[in-house]
Design a protein that fits this description.
single chain; 268 residues; alpha/beta; TIM Barrel; 8-stranded parallel β-barrel; 8 strands; 14% strand
Length: 268
């Protein structure tokens, strides 16, 4: 039976309880159409600022605005009634604790998102504490941080050096003590990711960080084969989506050209 038969929405408490008990699943979603398909199947839906790349066609996430994130989160919440919806806080919306609080308050007031996600480690613990104290559930994000792509000169795997392990462990502990209920760990060597997951009592959601964490997240257009420019090492294609849509489109074009569509039964 499909999980969509369940009416009760997944809560942050339920996500916390899955630590060391059940792997957590998460996909991105940017609209009501796909969030309705994914709803109740995956535990969490992330309205990622990745939409700036996969949905809008930009080369990175940095130009995504708070207004765009709110718009897409509202759409996702219209389609999702069971999965826990998380809204990414875009670049520039968390530059001070007060600005982050104002941004998160807007997200909570203008959408039905149950949590926000913030990139950063120990350096933003005060921001996270302020949000949590004001009733905002927070998902953390450490390791490879896409919003720092220009600063770091590209997307670089973390945890290859001993000092990076210590820094990541400090970040993980800081996020936990600040009050996040889980965090995304991106682009971290698998053995290091395992140590990080074992060092905290909250779930760690991996992307490109091996299997020894508490769950996984993928961008939906990567997982289902709609993004064709390149395939990251950590992505598995569960569908050849672009190929299938292209073939269906070509069949539609052929039927129109040949006068086979619409048929009599498809006409008024």
């Amino acid at each position: 039976m499909s999980m969509q038969a369940q009416k009760k929405s997944i809560t942050t408490t339920e996500i916390l309880r899955k630590k060391n008990k059940e792997k957590i699943t998460m996909l991105t979603a940017y609209d009501a159409l796909f969030s309705k398909i994914f709803d109740g199947e995956v535990d969490m839906l992330l309205v990622g600022d990745s939409l700036n790349m996969s949905f809008f066609g930009e080369s990175d996430t940095l130009s995504a605005t708070l207004e765009q994130m709110i718009y897409h989160t509202r759409a996702v919440c219209n389609g999702a009634k069971t999965s826990l919806v998380v809204c990414d806080m875009p670049f520039g919306s968390t530059i001070s604790p007060q600005i982050a609080l104002e941004s998160a308050m807007r997200i909570f007031k203008e959408t039905k998102a149950q949590a926000v996600k913030i990139e950063g480690g120990a350096e933003i613990k005060d921001t996270i504490k302020l949000l949590v104290q004001n009733g905002i559930a927070v998902v953390g994000h450490i390791g490879l941080k896409p919003q720092l792509v220009r600063l770091e000169g590209g997307y670089k795997v973390k945890g290859k050096q001993e000092r990076e392990l210590e820094s990541l462990l400090q970040d993980a502990k800081a996020l936990e003590s600040a009050g996040v209920f889980c965090f995304v760990l991106e682009g971290v060597c698998a053995e290091v990711a395992k140590q990080i997951s074992q060092s905290v009592q909250i779930p760690v959601i991996g992307i490109g960080s091996g299997a020894s964490v508490d769950g996984q997240v993928l961008v939906w257009s990567d997982a289902f084969g709609f993004f064709e420019e390149f395939k990251p090492k950590f992505v598995r294609h569960y569908l050849q989506g672009a190929k299938m849509v292209r073939e269906a489109m070509q069949a539609y074009i052929k039927d129109v050209k040949n006068g086979e569509f619409p048929s009599a039964s498809e006409s008024y």
